[in-house]
Every structure is written in C-alpha cells, then in structure tokens.
Task: structure prediction
Amino acid sequence: MIKDCPGFQMPFHAELILKGGIVVNHDGVAPRDIAVSGGRITGIGSFSKEQAGEVVDCTGLHILPGVVDSQVHLREPGAEHKEDLETGGRAAVMGGVTGVFEMPNTSPLTTTPEALADKVARDATVPVMVIRKEIEAPGPVGIMRLVLPVDGTPLAAESLPFATTLAQRLGAPIALVRSVNIAEMMPPAVGMGEAIPFEMYDQAEREMREEAEQYLQEVAAKLRAGGLNVTAQVLFGPPSSAISDVPHVCNLVIQVSHERSGVEAHPAVHAVLRHR
Result:
C-alpha cells in the first residue's frame, strides 16, 4: 500500500506527477496527486507542479490500482490461433490488468517444471532462468560458476542476495568482477596540441583500480563468511566488452544493472547467454 502524503513539500522531487486525478486507493476515493520516479509510485497526496520534471493533468479522470486477473487462458503453446502470450499480455496491459494467473490447459499441459520453464522463456524480452525451489542438494544442473558484476552502487548490489542463494543451492563458486574504464572518467584534451599528461591518466587508473580492488575484497569477505567460494577480479575497459570476456561455457551472469554504464539490462548479459 502507498500511504497518503498530505502536505509533502520540497525538497521532494519526482520525475512525473499525475495531477488532480480521482485516486481509488485502499482508504477511499478522492482527488489526489501521484508522484512517480523510476517507474514507481513514490508518493500520493498534494504536490506542486514545481516538484516534478513532467506534470500530466488528470482532472476528471479516475486512477485505479492495477487489476489482478486470477483466471486467464493465453493458449500458448498449442492454440496460438486463439491467443498467445504476447497478444494476451498486451490486451491485459491495455485493460489495466497488471498481473494474471495463467491456466495450464495448453498443449502440452503446463503441469511440469520443464513445461513451465518453456512457457516462461518463450516470449521473454530478457534472458530467463527458472529455478525450482524443491532442489535442495547441489547437482549437475549445467551451471559451474556464477559471474557477478558489481560496480559499487546500491543498484548493482541488489543482485547479491539472489546470487548468494543460488550459489548455496547449486554449490557453485562466485566470480566477482568490476570494470575500470579510465576513458569514461577522464575529460578529453581541450584545443589543438593540448593533451592530458600520461601521468594523470596513470594516477587516475591506479586510484580507480585500488578502489575497485578494495570494494571487491570487502564484498568477497562478506560472502566467504557465509561459506561461499568466491574470487574477485578487476577488469579494464568498457563494462559491456570487459564483462562479456569473463564467462565461459556453463557460467551464469547475474546482474540487476551496471548503474555507472547507464544501461538497465547490461549488454554483456544478453551476449553471454545468447552465444555461450
């Protein structure tokens, strides 16, 4: 539930404010503003236009929570001429349905972990891995090492709990990696004949490497304290190419985001899972 935030004033700032809509919430129906940042609701209440980068006038419109449909037939696989995962999913979103319970009466029936994994991966826009909760002991599931890129930001660190759980379940080691790209951090030369001294680049690279090494060792120490087998490696160059050179066959890259590279789903993840 998002709590009402009456009188919530500066310095609060949102990317988007839905202004003046009639909000249907758990505590009633009333005109309110909705603040949104990063694709998430960050506040409900009364906000000024100056508190957002973009304002949408919703006067006279009702704003409802997303609907959950508990019985949906998407017909894939086996009867795609009636409906499929993409068309059903798009129709749901257009109708304000943000969650569905998809029925298993497809052909073949979705009644085994293998059939479920196939269905989940069919139209996924990103690499998908389905993990069975009932697997208790380590076993030969085709994953020999987990590659975990982290860049020191809280967003990237969100992958740590999942990686820890998966490593414990599979008995697989974790390879922590962090990319140092000096070219992104140093300004270009200004003017003809002017160049940044090599010593400045060298000093900056050394400091960045030392910072990265210290961070990786701190993270590795915490994971090792939980009984995990962990290695740490500093990489050099653009994150997407540097990270994609690390994994080998039977490696799994786990990543929420590489925040400093400015991409939500890191290209290295897609490249590795597609070609390896």
